[in-house]
Specification:
With 155 residues, this protein is mainly alpha-helical. 41% of the residues lie in helices and 9% in strands. Strand 1 and strand 2 form a beta hairpin. The protein has two domains: 76 residues, no CATH class; 61 residues, no CATH class. The strands form two sheets. It has a two-stranded antiparallel ribbon. Helix 6 packs across helix 7.
Length: 155
């Protein structure tokens, strides 16, 4: 599922007050207006868009209290505000894996680069990580890449 559109369905508290949207509910159901708060908000706010958001939203609405959903949504919005700097890479067996969202990668790749060179993006899976441990030249190439993105569930 392409989760990029989630950002475009944001609403304001005024929409709730005017009755155009529910306070707590779904954001992924395109047939209904999005809610102000949803069980998927913490995932979106933290940049964890590679999750099964539909399943998380449905289970969250079935099993969690509305107050819990609101509190988690507000806390993650405050703690993971987009104004915060990008987190440091995650290092796995000496290989730095970029700790960024898809949206951030796309934004940064579209920006003009100061030395006008092509950008490099590598995708790392467990095989690549193991190979980099044994092959210093491959590790050097990964170290020079603009982004090393996790490829697969194993990372």
């Amino acid at each position: 599922m392409d989760n990029q559109w989630v950002e475009t369905r944001k609403i304001s508290p005024l929409d709730v007050v005017k009755g155009r949207a529910p306070l707590v509910g779904e954001k992924l159901n395109m047939a209904r207006p999005p809610s102000l708060f949803s069980p998927i908000d913490p995932y979106i706010n933290c940049g964890l868009l590679n999750q099964d958001l539909q399943k998380i939203e449905q289970e969250g609405l079935e099993n969690k209290s509305r107050v819990s959903i609101i509190v988690k949504s507000v806390l993650t919005r405050i703690l993971f505000n987009s104004a915060h700097p990008t987190p440091d890479p995650v290092t796995l067996c000496g290989l730095a894996i970029s700790n960024v969202t898809t949206k951030e990668v796309v934004r940064r790749l579209r920006e003009p680069h100061r030395d006008d060179r092509a950008r490099t993006v590598f995708f790392a899976n467990m095989h690549n990580v193991n190979t980099c441990v044994r092959d210093p030249e491959l590790k050097r190439l990964y170290d020079q890449a603009d982004f090393v993105l996790a490829d697969g569930v194993g990372l």
